[in-house]
Amino acid sequence: MSQDSAEKPPVILERAKILKNRIMGGETVKELIDDVRITRGDMTIDCDYAIHFQETDKIVFEQNVHYSDSLRDLWADRVIYFIENDSLEAIGSVKIIQDMYEAHCSQANYTDQRKNVYLYRDVELFHHQENIILTGEQGFGDRTLKYAEVFKNAQMVKFDSLGETEITITAHKIAYFNPESRAQASDSVEILKDEVTGNCEILQYFTEEDYALMEVEPVVFRELDEIKGDSIYLYFVEEKIEHIEIFGHASVFSPPEGGQEGDFNKMFGNRIFIYLLEGQIEKIDVAGNARSLYYLYEKEEFKGVNQATGDKIYLRFAQGKIETINVAGGSEGTYYPPDYPGIIE
After folding, report:
1. pLDDT tens for residues 90-141?
2. Is the pTM above the cut of 0.85?
């Protein structure tokens, strides 16, 4: 076999039941048949058939191919190993197991002395520790898979311990940073979890803390509510939305219960915090140039409108219905009817 420079370990033929020298396409080759094993440094490749192209300095492995090194195991229909630059291509039914990851694809190319891997066609990356799967048309991973990504029709799904879907994120590109337990999605991002859906251009999801940060034109839909701002945080507890924080040009639009079509309760401010309990809004705090408009209905009968402005507005709910509105700091308010229990402080 080939002998490399002093810096590189040699390629060693450990075993093969049959070895033939012949000419193929005008090039001298060694044909290795049955129970083949070739090693180089920490790398071992086993198969049932291999051809060493001596002039182009590559080895083609076929039939029950298994590659392993100190970091990973790989299986494929065919592996081409390039001796000079210590790189390889795995083709057909590729499966890779490395640390907590399991990857599947149609083709995997290891470059830069097998430091980085590029994945092609029908890419699936399973992270068993975090119970997530990344899919896409293409993928990439660094040597230790501290960083991995999928792109082109990328999707990330997180599962609970019973295998039920907790959250789904789609985007053009999704990267996963393993040490931080953080996913970052970019370009045409959509998030779906429980009753919440949202769109933005950049999203970060922290799998252990179970919260998402949406940036660049984020909009969130919760049932019939529409939420917008410069950035939106979604916090989840036990697979349910617990509270939402909106920063910068924050707004919330929601149709009043029992209201007419076209009526929308509205809130605006620099910051809006929404707190939920058992799936229903419990309280909303609006701060910074706070404004609110609420339609009041009782058994689908219109009772009036509440408008308020101030430094801060506090809205409290009972069983999903507005109960009190408190306004603080430089406040103005108009309440119809007058006996509605809104309070200006």
Report:
1. 999 999 999 889 999 999 999 988 889 999 999 999 999 899 999 999 999 9
2. yes
Intervals of CATH 2.60.450.10 along the chain: 218-345
Classify strands 147-159 and 301-318 as parallel, antiparallel or unpaired: unpaired
Chain centroid offset of residue 272 CA = 26
Contact 295, 211 (CB under 8 A): no
CA geometry: angle 189, 194, 199, nearest 5 deg: 20
Paired strand residues for 333? 308
Q: How far is CA 142 from the centre of its chain?
A: 17
- Say which residues have a Cβ less than 8 Å from residue 243's Cβ, sequence separation at least 6: 235, 273, 274, 275, 276
Q: Answer for the pair 49, 36: CB distance below 8 angstroms, yes or no.
A: yes
Q: Which amino acid is at 334?
A: T
Phi/psi of residue 56, each to 5°?
Answer: -85, -5
- Residue 153: HSE in the Cβ half-sphere, 13 Å Cα cutoff: 8
Structure tokens at 221: 């839909």
Q: Which residue do the tokens 């200006």 mark?
A: 344
DSSP string covering 98-149: ETTEEEEEEEEEEETTTTEEEEEEEEEEEETTTTEEEEEEEEEE-TTSSEEE
Candidates 32, 11, 166; CA nearest to 82 is 11
- CATH numeric code, 218-345: 2.60.450.10
pLDDT at 194 over 90: no
